[in-house]
Amino acid sequence: MSLIIVGGHDCMCCRYQQMCKKRGHKVKVFTQMPTGLARHIGSADGIILFTSTVSHKMVETAVKEAKRKNIRVMRSHSSSATSLNGLLDEIDTLEQTQAEISAYGATT
Questions:
Q1: Helix axis angle, 81-107 to 13-22, nearest 10°
Q2: What is the 3-class SS of the chain, one letter each residue?
Q3: What's the pLDDT tens digit per position in 19-77?
Q4: Which residues contact residue 58 at a Cβ distance below 8 angstroms, ignoring those fewer than 6 apart?
Q5: CB atoms within 10 A of CB 74
Q6: Which among 5, 55, 85, 92 could bridge 29 via Cys, Cβ 3.0 to 4.6 Å?
Q7: pTM for this one?
Q8: Angstrom distance (rounded) from CA 87 to CA 33
């Protein structure tokens, strides 16, 4: 699954990437507003917003692009490693549930 992380602390950027890679997710992390953020989002499967450490403009841009491309958005007020782990657990659970539903539909 490809993810976009918007917000968070600059010093945690590599840690976010390591945590996602360890779980098999490809990730792009934007802690600062790049020029053309909407273009950088691309066709991700999910967007994680750390709302305490992100500008309103970044949130608006990410949410607008997510709606336009039908991308799931998950929000967390905290930008800690524990918070990201919780969100990744939630994503993994959703993926597993979707796989089970697909498998059940294929067998009936």
A1: 30
A2: CEEEEECCCHHHHHHHHHHHHHCCCEEEEECCCCCCHHHHHCCCCEEEEEHHHCCHHHHHHHHHHHHHHCCEEEEECCCCHHHHHHHHHHHHHHHHHHHHHHHHHHHC
A3: 999 999 999 999 998 888 888 888 889 999 998 888 899 999 999 999 999 999 999 99
A4: 6, 7, 30, 33, 37
A5: 16
A6: 5
A7: 0.86
A8: 22
